[in-house]
Amino acid sequence: MTAPQSLHFCKMNGLGNEIVIIDLRGAKRALSGDEVRAMADEPRSHFDQLMVLNSPRRSGTDAFVTIFNSDGSESSACGNGTRCVAWFESQRTGRMSLKFETKAGVLDVSVGDIDHITVDMGEPRFAWNEIPLAEPFHDTRGIELQIGPIDAPVLHSPSVVNVGNPHAIFWVDDVEAHDLARFGPLLENHPLFPERANISLAEVRSRNDIKLRVWERGVGLTRACGTAACAAAVAAMRKKLVDRTVTVHLPGGPLVITWTDNNRILMTGPVEVEYEDDWPRAQTTAGA
């Protein structure tokens, strides 16, 4: 078997959400699902999301970003990954305002410094067939779905929303009181979600403060998920539980989410650069 062509990558994280960036702009190269999974399996190149920069398809944008989960599946959006890509590109070009194409649309990013990067995540979608769900629900602020006995469910009535990918948010009094590692895969793959779903437990602590834990589609338990923070924030705003700007506290740290009057979701948070390397790593010859 021919050895895979070496790829240079940058390892970063957004609040502990592990991100790997590969720049393939101008290269006639594509990644297979097997390569993506092999990269994720190696500790040095492990990621929650792989952000692949391809040549832009529209004028005025910096790159078309293909987003892979660690299981090799594709995602349409990744907020933490987009912040990482923006810092990567800003350091390369010196520009502080950037545009990236994704399957979810064009994302505008403003770079203040490494701790303050704001992504316009676009408009939330609430209609049942836009999320999508397998059957109609008139009010997606709370749908009929539960875990546990019908007369005493453990989790029930999640809000659902699409912010580039599907999310279900269960409202709880204490996010630590539930075994998300157990329930997450069952709910992610529930027949109600034909494209699977990201599953969150949300604890509203004040009018501007939410605590969140996330089971991420195609990844599992994660320290941070930007789209989940956006989804939980706008879902809480729809239910009038919080104000239009809220801090979402994830295990990896906080993100500030604003739902603007013109229906845009703005997400602000930090990133961290870890190292650069090549995959697969060059093999050294014994005794060399």
What does this 3D model show about the protein?
The protein is of the alpha+beta class. The protein is built from four helices and 19 strands. It has a 17-stranded mixed β-sheet that branches. A hairpin with a 7-residue loop joins strand 9 and strand 10. The longest helix has 15 residues. It is globular and about 55 Å long.
Describe the sheet with the most strands: 17 strands, mixed
How many H/I helices? 4
Tertiary shape:
globular
Number of strands: 19
In which range does the helix fraction lie?
Answer: 10-25%
The span between the termini is 25 Å
Strand content: 35-45%
Please state the average pLDDT score: 94
Order of helices and strands: EEHEEEHEEEEEEEHEEEHEEEE
In short:
The protein has 288 residues and is of the alpha+beta class.
